[in-house]
Amino acid sequence: MKFITSSPYQTKMLAKAFASALPAGSVILAYGELGSGKTAFAKGIALALHVRDVVNSPTFNIIKFYPGKPLDFYHIDAYRLEGRNDDIGFTDFIGKEENITYIEWPDVLNDYYKNVKHLYKLVIDYIDLNKRQIEIVEVKQ
């Protein structure tokens, strides 16, 4: 499915609607240039999961955990893991039924999500300063 959003707020609301229908254990692979809106999309997922904490980019932390209801939310930014074989506990939560996992720059972690039951690819492209084209595709494995 393809969508056009005209503001970060619309991107968040699209993500909230999308996440409201996600099955437990879902993993979302987020692709897009730096600053394209991947973290805004993550904030919308957090809204759907009733996360109370402030959601921001985990670029320096790599992983951020947010307790939610009924599911918890893991937000990963694998940008800094490029070319490294770091295992910092990804198998403990990726694809597990008690949470939703959102991975920015996911290619370096493909061994961790290759057997996930509910996998989605998200691509965010710039159209102009505020406008984005957002494509969401369920990945059949």
From TrEMBL:
GO terms for biological process: tRNA threonylcarbamoyladenosine modification. One of its GO terms (molecular function) is ATP binding. It comes from the Bacteria. GO terms for cellular component: cytoplasm. The keyword Translocase does not apply. It is found in: Cytoplasm. Gene3D superfamilies: P-loop containing nucleotide triphosphate hydrolases. Belongs to the TsaE family. This is tRNA threonylcarbamoyladenosine biosynthesis protein TsaE. It comes from Candidatus Scatoplasma merdavium.
